[in-house]
Amino acid sequence: MKKYLLTGLLVWLPLAITIWVLLWLVGLLDAIFGGVLTGLVALTPSSAGSLIEPLRHIPGLGVVLVFSALLITGALVSNVAGRWWLAQWDRLFAHIPVFKTIYNSVKKVSDTLFSSNGNAFRKAMLVQYPRPGVWTIAFQTGNPGGEVANHLGPDFISVYVPTTPNPTSGFFLMLARAEVIELQMSVDEALTYVISMGSVAPPPPIRLAPKQVPL
């Protein structure tokens, strides 16, 4: 019976966690949408507020509207006029005390992580941490810059070492390039390896046999 229970748990657990995460995201977006509706109701006349209020009780509407807003925003800022308005937006927030510190920090991190031209989280590698002889999975986040680069030199890279089983927390390290081993596995495969605590190993890379040159 214990064997059957564990087998059934392994079958249903991934599905249950996936559904739970999706429901949490839907609830979060609906809550954000509900906050926007509350502001609209407070700013509009009572007649318009009575029309807006029923939208609060439509489940999943926040997901659709937030997704649509992100899609439209991305399309608008992809042209020259949109980029000009985005620059004005950033300039406005850059002059608000306290707010500008948080906004600029988050913007720099998001631009680095999600930029299609960046190198953040594009490579998985092996590093020795927390001491020599002990190896773990890490992800390259870039190269040291500024004053740090002047002290370390050009042959260093910046890496992020995630914790297990929660990879959203971890450690930031700067290591010599010669001390890391680049892996051929994808970032998704490496994350799965970390989250599963090494129990789900990615398949080894396929090595093609050298072609035989006819004599």
Helix vs. strand class: alpha+beta
Terminal Cα span: 64 Å
- Coarse shape: flat
Mean pLDDT rating: 77
Note the main sheet: 5 strands, antiparallel
* Residue windows where pLDDT falls under 50 for at least 5 positions: none
Alpha-carbon Rg, integer: 24 Å
**What's the count of strands?**
5
Structure description:
A five-stranded antiparallel beta sheet has the order 4-3-2-1-5, with helices on one face. It has three domains: 2-76; 85-117, no CATH class; 124-195, no CATH class. It is flat, with a radius of gyration of 24 Å. The longest helix has 42 residues, at 2-43. Helix 1 packs antiparallel against helix 2 (46-52) and helix 1 crosses helix 3 (61-76). With 215 residues, it is of the alpha+beta class. It has helices spanning 2-43, 46-52, 61-76, 80-93, 99-114, 146-152, 187-195; strands at residues 124-128, 135-142, 156-162, 170-176, 181-182. Strand 1 and strand 2 (135-142) form a beta hairpin.
List the helices and strands and how they pair.
Layout: H1 2-43, H2 46-52, H3 61-76, H4 80-93, H5 99-114, E1 124-128, E2 135-142, H6 146-152, E3 156-162, E4 170-176, E5 181-182, H7 187-195
Antiparallel strand pairs: 1-2, 1-5, 2-3, 3-4
Helix pairs in contact: 1-2, 1-3
